[in-house]
Every structure is written in structure tokens, then in C-alpha cells.
């Protein structure tokens, strides 16, 4: 994982804090742009794309290969997220995914990245999404 982090030049472009203002959960979240997320997805097979939106949002459109675990179901399904892969978390705009990253960090996952701007930014960049037929 460290090699991927170093070789891809992934960086911490800022910090968000899950549950801002809550003294109990102050997990630092590493943010990456949609462009950087796509670059990482393109160069590594060891990436798990986690979509924490609702099933309805996911069914409207989603990133190819994304794994849906709505944020409200995340704690009960943490075992479905591989600990040996880089995890890129996204939602619609970035708020829920930042919170999800904090939750996952508290559960022991290390290579976590919040995709800033979520799928809205992904689409704004012109990156492909899958839609139901």
C-alpha cells in the first residue's frame, strides 16, 4: 500500500473532520480529487470503490465497479471492505463519504480516501458513469 501511495503521488490535499465538533470522533480524512481518484483506479487493481449513497442514488448512476454500502448500513457491513486495498469512498458531494472515512478509520482501515465533490464532481469532470437500462 505504501508503494501505491508513493508511486502514484497521492497526497493529502486537506483534512476534513468526521462529525465536526464532536470530541469523540476526530478522524483525519485524506481528500483526493475526482481526477486523482480516476488516475488511481486506472493504475491499480488494488482499489475498492465504496459508494455510500442510497440504493436509489446508486441506481440513478454510479461509477463502474463501485460497491454500494449506504452509510446507514456501513457499520454492520465493514467486513465487506477489504483491509488490504486502497479504499476510495464517495457519495454525492463529499460530506457523507468524509463521515464514512472517519467511521472506517475507527474500524482499523488505513488506506482511505474521500473523493472530494463526490459523484457530482466525477460527472462534472466528464468521467463515465453507469446507468440502468
List the helices and strands and how they pair.
Elements (H helix, E strand, L loop, with lengths): L1 H7 L6 E3 L10 E5 L1 H10 L3 E5 L3 H6 L6 E2 L17 E5 L4 H12 L5 E4 L2 H7 L9
Parallel strand pairs: 2-6, 3-4, 3-5, 5-6
Antiparallel strand pairs: 1-2
What is the share of helical residues?
A: 25-40%
The CATH architecture designation is 3-Layer(aba) Sandwich
- Any idea of the CATH class? Alpha Beta
Structural class determined from secondary elements: alpha/beta
Cα(first) to Cα(last) distance is 36 Å
Name the CATH homologous superfamily. Answer: Rhodanese-like domain
Order of helices and strands: HEEHEHEEHEH
- Biggest sheet character: 6 strands, mixed
CATH topology: Oxidized Rhodanese, domain 1
Percentage of residues in strands:
15-25%
How large is the radius of gyration? 14 Å
Strand order of the largest sheet: 1-2-6-5-3-4
What is the number of domains?
1
Query: Helix count?
Result: 5
- How many β-strands, per DSSP? 6
Give your account of this protein's structure.
The protein is globular. Mean pLDDT is 83; it is low at 1-27. The chain has one domain (2-124): Rhodanese-like domain (Oxidized Rhodanese, domain 1, 3-Layer(aba) Sandwich), CATH 3.40.250.10. The protein has 133 residues and is of the alpha/beta class. The protein has five helices and six strands. It has a six-stranded mixed β-sheet with strand order 1-2-6-5-3-4. 32% of the residues lie in helices and 18% in strands. The longest helix has 12 residues, at 95-106.
